[in-house]
Specification:
Elements (H helix, E strand, L loop, with lengths): L4 E3 H8 L3 H9 L6 E2 L5 E4 H10 L13 E6 L3 H12 L5 E6 L2 H11 L3 E5 L7 H10 L7 E7 L12 E5 L3 H12 L6
Parallel strand pairs: 4-5, 4-6, 6-7, 7-8
Antiparallel strand pairs: 1-3, 2-3
Helix pairs in contact: 1-2, 4-7
């Protein structure tokens, strides 16, 4: 039996977007929602379907669908959101999660098991090369690819442990092109 009322997290999973995106749609009054007595947001599924239809947002719902999981690890909120928005254009293709620190990332690396990690080189209190080495040495992440976001050419030392280094700032098309190359995707169709 299909649920009629969804939490913002369930709505995000249904739409293949980041939960923060659902919250923004609600905050900007694009998507109807109500709050429970405990202050949690809830969305009627019919309202969500109507919103997706009005905005022409395609959502792939095939039962055997194996979307590519991408984890964004970046302490800068705006950059995380910009990358998420770029990837959301391909919502039927990618499942995206984003975190701001390595503690959250460590938890999601185990639970989410991403195919690709997009990692900012300048995370507070941790060396990005160490994060890359941790991913490379983890048995359950052995096939995970890594793109490091570096300032200028400072990412050269990390090239040995990452699959690719993108210089900040970068355009969304460059990121998508790099993802296609690394994951050997022929097309986003």
């Amino acid at each position: 039996m299909e649920k009629e009322i969804l939490s913002s997290f369930e709505a995000a999973r249904y739409c293949h977007v980041h939960p923060g995106t659902i919250k923004n749609w609600i905050k900007n009054e694009n998507l109807k929602a109500f709050k429970t007595p405990g202050g949690h947001r809830r969305i009627y599924k019919r309202d969500l379907d109507q919103f997706l239809k009005e905005k022409n947002i395609p959502v792939k719902r095939e039962s055997g669908d194996q979307r590519i999981k991408i984890l964004i690890i970046d302490s800068k909120y705006r950059r995380r959101e910009a990358i998420s928005r770029t990837l959301q254009r391909w919502a039927g293709f990618f499942e995206v999660a984003a975190v701001s620190n390595c503690f959250q990332a460590g938890e999601l690396l185990v639970l989410f098991k991403p195919n690709l990690v997009i990692l900012d080189e300048k995370l507070p209190c941790v060396d990005a090369a160490d994060v890359c080495r941790h991913i490379r040495s983890s048995l359950y992440l052995e096939n995970t690819k890594i793109i490091v976001l570096a300032k200028d050419s400072s990412g050269k030392k990390i090239c040995r442990v990452a699959n690719a280094v993108l210089t900040k700032p970068f355009h969304g098309e460059k990121l998508l092109s790099e993802i296609k190359n690394i994951l050997e995707i022929k097309s986003f169709e």
